[in-house]
Design a protein that fits this description.
Layout lengths: L4 H24 L5 H13 L8 H13 L10 E3 L4 E5 H6 L4 H9 L9 H12 L9 H8 L9 H7 L3 E5 L1 H15 L6 E6 L6 H12 L2 E4 L12 H4 L8 H13 L5 E2 L2 E2 L4 E2 L3 E2 L5 E5 L6 H4 L4 E5 L3 H11 L2 H22 L7 E3 L1
Parallel strand pairs: 4-10, 4-11, 5-10, 11-12
Antiparallel strand pairs: 1-2, 2-3, 6-9, 7-8
Helix pairs in contact: 2-6, 2-7, 3-5, 5-10, 6-7
Length: about 350
């Protein structure tokens, strides 16, 4: 496990949360056997990365399994395993018409969460087993965690009693499932679709955009690449809500041609060099994600089929900014960029009734 003091504290906190969820599993599934505990710890720490192949293969496996399931809207869609991982119930997913390809996308976009090894999982299980009866101390239980050629399985008792049907995904999707459903709905038909992801700085817009792009094979364009050049940053322009964004160019070069079915060629703006970079062509795709503050300006939002707004507590956002910005850059955020964002949100009443708010 990670070695420095901070990582040790994070790891210990992770283990406590995971074991609390394990106790919840015992209450929910009283027939759980030691093998089921091994599988729980394995999935809680290693997640899904150990079983992923290509997305098409994963989709076929899920399609085949869901085809034989009876939809059940009463079962929970998610069961939390740990701070990083949860189980997505396929019977509930069937009832909610969540497509296998979307579930496969959520799985493949979750693989990066793993930060533990099999030895870490074996060590946690060994500590836990010391608090239990002799059945938990069988050597085979530890061996299945350490042996790279083996994967833990549910016990026959568990299978017979509970008929498990699920896939492991990042807990990120638990918080963002409404966004996934909304995007799935608008992309179900034919034709090009565009969504916007707005929100204050450091709220998680880019993370959400990148992960949705992985699930839905979308292209992402960032409004940060469409800041107005220095020569246009006059007091008069910046006094207009949203004036910091070159929305005319964003709409004209990206949003309008994309929705018209045309090839999209655009130039990103390099703020440090104060110049437009060489022209690039947007990859051919059915879904475009415009990510960043100011993407709800009227000239841009008129092309959107879905508008998401990402929110996060101010304390959380400030902690993120402190980690990623220099002291000078952080000062400029406080003195200029954040007030400009707030003026824009206030002027356009954002998030409004047409926005899906993602916490």
């Amino acid at each position: 496990m990670p070695g420095d003091d901070n990582d040790k504290m994070i790891t210990e906190s992770f283990e406590r949360e995971m074991l609390r969820e394990l106790e919840s599993q015992y209450r929910r599934y009283p027939a759980m056997q030691p093998e089921d505990t091994v599988k729980f710890i394995f999935q809680s720490m290693l997640g899904v990365g150990h079983i992923l192949s290509d997305r098409a293969t994963v989709t076929r496996y899920i399609e085949n399994e869901m085809a034989g399931l009876e939809a059940n809207p009463e079962e929970p869609l998610f069961e939390v395993l740990s701070p990083a991982w949860c189980r997505l119930n396929l019977r509930r997913a069937t009832a909610e018409h969540i497509q296998p390809s979307v579930i496969a996308g959520m799985m493949t976009a979750s693989g990066f969460e793993t930060r533990f090894s099999r030895k870490d999982a074996a060590d946690v299980f060994a500590r836990f087993a010391e608090t239990k009866d002799q059945r938990f101390r069988e050597p085979d239980l530890t061996d299945v965690l350490l042996n790279e050629e083996k994967l833990p399985s549910h016990s026959a008792v568990y299978h017979d009693r509970y008929h498990p049907a699920y896939r492991v995904v990042s807990t990120f999707w638990l918080r963002c499932i409404t966004a996934v459903r909304a995007v799935a709905d608008i992309t179900a038909g034919t034709g090009r679709r565009m969504i916007t992801i707005d929100g204050p700085c450091a709220s998680g817009k880019t993370t959400l955009a990148d992960r949705l792009a992985a699930v839905f094979d979308a292209a992402v364009v960032h409004t940060d690449d469409f800041v107005v050049p220095h020569a246009m940053k006059t007091k008069e322009r910046l006094a207009v809500p949203g004036g910091n964004c070159d929305d005319e160019r964003l709409a004209g070069e990206v949003a309008e041609p994309f929705k018209n079915g045309e090839s999209v060629r655009y130039r990103r703006y390099d703020c440090a060099a104060d110049r437009l970079l060489d022209e690039e062509t947007l990859p051919d795709c059915r879904l475009l994600i415009l990510e960043g503050c100011y993407c709800n300006l009227p000239s841009v939002r008129r092309y959107a089929d879905l508008r998401l707004f990402v929110s996060a507590p101010e304390k959380t956002r400030m902690e993120r900014l402190k980690k990623r910005e220099t002291p000078e850059s952080l000062r400029r955020f406080g003195e200029m960029w954040i007030p400009l964002e707030n003026a824009y949100f206030s002027a356009f009443g954002l998030p409004d009734d047409g926005s899906f708010v993602i916490e």
